[in-house]
Structures are given as C-alpha cells and as structure tokens.
Prior knowledge:
The structure is a single chain. By secondary structure, this protein is α+β, with helices and mostly antiparallel strands. Among the domains are: about 1-40, no CATH class; about 65-120. It has helices spanning about 25-40, 115-125, 160-165, and strands spanning about 65, 70-75, 85, 90-95, 100, 135, 145-150, 155, 180, 235-240, 255, 280-285. A hairpin with a 2-residue loop joins strand 3 and strand 4.
Amino acid sequence: MPRNGSGTAxxxxxxxxxxxxxxxxxxxxxxxxxxxxxxSLPRDGQAGMSGQLLAISGTAxxxxxxxxxxxxxxxxxxxxxxxxxxxxxxxxxxxxxxxxAVSVAPTTGDHLTNKTYVDAQIPAATSLVPSGSVMMFAASxxxxxxxxxxxxxxxxxxxxxxxxxxxxxxxxxxGATTFTVPDLRGEFVRGWDHGKGTDTxxxxxxxxxxxxxxxxxxxxxxxxxAxxxxxxxxxxxxxTQANANPSGAGTPALTFNDAxxxxxxxxxxxxxxRPRNVALMYIIKT
Length: 286
C-alpha cells in the first residue's frame, strides 16, 4: 500500500461495487494495510521512526509543531535555515547558524536577553558611579565617560553632570563656558581632614607642598661621652651645646660646618622626599 508525497495511502487492488471480490486480491490489500500499520509511528511512541518527521513551516499563531491543548505554542520555520520558538502566538527566540536571537526583554534574572537590551542598560549601569568620582586607571588614555585629572578647562555644557557636582572648586575655566577639572598629575592624594584635627588648617581641594617632619639627629663629637664607638672631630661642627642628651634633657644646636660633606655617598638622593611609588593616571567620572 504505497503512500504518495502527501502521505496518503492507496490500496493495491480495487473492487467494483456489487461484484464478488477475489480472495487473493482482498488478502493482498489486508496484507498491505497490516504492513502499513506496523511501519507507522505508534501514538504511544514505543517504536522508532525510520525517516524524517516532516512538518509544515507554520506561523506564529499556528506553528508547524504545536500541542493539542496549546496550538499557538511550539516551533515554526520563518524562513530557510531559521527556527523560531513560539509561545502564546509570539516568537520568543529565533535560532540560525550564527546564533540565537531573543525577541523579548527579560523580566527576571534567569531570562535570556539580546544585545539590544544589554546595550540599552549600559548607560544605567555606568550611572551607578556618580559624576565627580575619582579613581586610578591603569592605561594612558581615559575611558569613555571619564576625563583625565589634568587641570584642563572643559565645557560646562558637554560635561553638565560633572559641573553640577564640582562646579568651580578646581578652577572656573574661562568663567563662562568652561570649568577646570582637578590636576592630580604627579601628586599624592590625602584625605580631607574635615574637622578631624590631623591635618588642620586645610580647605577642601587645597594643595600642600612637600615637607619633612621636624626632628633631631644626635651625633657624638670628639669631646663626647666616654665609651662611644665612633666620633666626629669638633672642627667639623660649630658646637653651641655640647653632647645634648638624646633622652631630651637638652636641645642640640649643631651646625654642619664642612662644605665638602654636604652630599652623601650612600643611599638614594633626589630633589624631593618621596616613598616608592608607581605612576598611574587619575581620572574623574563625567
């Protein structure tokens, strides 16, 4: 009992109504019917298919493969090489050889989404960092949405959000259309005292020059206390108070008096006092 291209079966032998049918012809038809039933896919799915399951392309409201109780949910073929997942009459996702395109925006954290939706969220994500925030950056060019803290005068209109936060604290620019960003090049940043009392007399944004805390160095001289392991000859010093007590009993007033000894030969020397450091770029959020 062969099937045509639409899957319709036709019997091998036909009969004329109201005539006697030949038993052999009838048996041959029954044999074909039995074979066709045997080769068919059982509704309970116990037997495997020997060929492809072919379905119509379908539409979003009537997908080619659907469910008896939910006929507008299933799978359809929008075009060649494309497969769409349909839910409730709408395409939810489209699959092609280049990837999966999600058609709807997510509503919960475990939903898939698409690039368009993610790109739209980037401005909101970057806004989590408030304008005026300063951070170090490990590259020589500031990223999008940030400016280098280089003391430049920038537009009050273009960078309106930043201007609304810092105003002219770091400089008024041209006084009308621009304002100045902080200049932190080559600087160490110190937390503003703001009434704590550790770094008194400072206003917000003020600069502070380098300094070394006032302190004393105690050196024995050739007329020093007996038992010292080394000494310096008195001719190298103008001694106004001999051998001051390191415990604080006296204040030493020794003046270095030999021009030939004004530079050292041990240690690391420079034109400033500094700790070890690494050069990075300070940037400010616009």
